[in-house]
Specification:
The chain is of the alpha+beta class. The protein contains 21 helices and 28 strands.
Amino acid sequence: VSTQSTWDLFGILMDSKASLLVEFRKLLTEHAIYAYIIPHNDAHSSEYTAECDERIKCISGFSGSAGTAVITEKEAILWTDSRYFLQAEKELRPGWKLIKIVSGDPNANYLYWLQHNIPPSSSIGYDPLLESSKKIDSCVSLLGPQGIKMTALEENLVDKVWKDKPALPSSSLFIHEEKFTGMAASKKIQSVRSLLEAKKCDSIVISALDQIAWVLNLRGSDIKYNPLFMSYLVILCDAETHTFLYVDPNKVKNPPLPDYLAANHITVLPYTSVISDLKKLKGRTFGIEMATMNAKIVQTILSSTNKIGCDLIDSIASLKIVKNTVELDGYRKCHIRDGAGLVKYLAWLEHQLNVEKKTDISEYNGAEKVEEFRKTAENFVGLSFASISSIGGNGSIVHYHPTKEGSKIINNTEVYLLDSGCQYFDGTTDVTRTVHYGTPKEYEKEMYTRVLLGNLSLERAVFPDNKLIQGAMLDMYTRRYLWEIGEDYGHGTGHGVGHFLNVHEGPTGISLYRVIPFVEGLVCTNEPGFYKEKEFGIRIENLMVCKKHPAHKGFLCFENITIAPYCKALINWKLLAQSDIDYINEYHKKVYELLSPFMKDDPIALQYLEKECKPYSAQNYTFSYFNNIIHHNNLKATY
């Protein structure tokens, strides 16, 4: 194909994408609505969705995992948070406007924008399968006084203009064995029944895919990187417990699934029949997680003599997020194997750049190579998210993903950030390491060290076991060393991580908005960062287990289960107190002891591990904690 014809084809493709808005706006007129809301969502309130549910990407070009779009007769707007600002600016097609979700800006809330920009007595359309009942209630409460009506449309309008929309995924399910889960599905179903009885309810619909997978000890592959399957779970508690799994029957027809489902008294029904079946139920009292349940399900339940007895408010999620001893043991073991693969990659990359003098390894090549090193590990299933392999300025894009065409070449003169993770049968990993394979600038070292200090500060936190300490209260531990010099980062400090489930598992988290109390058995990331736009990004991420403090009765602490060395070349040791240096040395000793057995046949990796884990001697740098704080406060950035 000639260059000219290639550009002609590209132009035709872009024109066809741009014409989507024209086609879409005809549907607004056809349905007599002024605006239409498009959330990044599916019928199960999933953060990550199957390709057939990527409607914002279809209509706007934006491929991030968080955002809300609104299309009117004259405007097309996307709202997203700071993780995706740069990505959205790159990906949004002509005709689209980005509104950044930032604290203090009322327009950052799309409901506020609707309230102030939609004419009175207008109608706003939405898909009731993609919006929660709670969200629609908020819209009605806010917009109703202006005569603005929320109109549920049975057919999604994006789907009507999506010419090549992918089909629903059809891969088979598989059993997640009890040797990994630590609890049988029958016991989990009974725990749900006990919860309902305590709430004086006799029925439940579960729509969150990770909750269904957890309760039934089943996994699938309908959503990339997440071992989930499209389904609903209905449990009716009469004299006996009746459990109905709404899923494509073809996904559960292969042995041993039929016998497994029968043994656990689970009836399989077609995924598409859940609405019609719920309409047949009469006089039942449902427990529902209103924040995540789609409006269509809620409307169906309330359309007959059924009622919603209580809002379960994360009750099922709370059963899942507290890990048992088998799950925690699995997390620890898979992180050792995962760390071995990561270190082999980082060692290989250093060797390629500094010894082989390679200048053709792209960010995309790096992402592929780190997966190659990890995939040979025991119990490996796949990645837990698309690897963020970023050099220099691309590291400042928090959720940057390199593409095969156009990604930058990795070098030894800029900061390299790698955020990656995997799914194993015995756990899920998510780790970020930032490195430099040459001579970093003093400013880069300062900011890396401040991020590291924040990370270690949270890791060493000790707090009462009183079910009152929330993620919002712990968030300041990591930010204080950046705040001292007027800097910060725009994302949360940590998120929960599922056990061979979603790498982002709510409601656990550490940020100003997380209110779930920390208790023994929670698993959460610790990932402060710093981002110099278009120049470099720094993030250090470990996975932590919340556990009883070994010395202080009635108190909790964290255990870092990520096993991978920090980048010594990026540490400004003058900023560290002796206690910090000792703590890092002790961690590196543990890393070496656990990972060196995996390096016996890889001398390059073993040499790298020995170098990075060799104890650091402070020599002339001996500060008291008090003097160290003064040093932090007086330090001036020299970039």
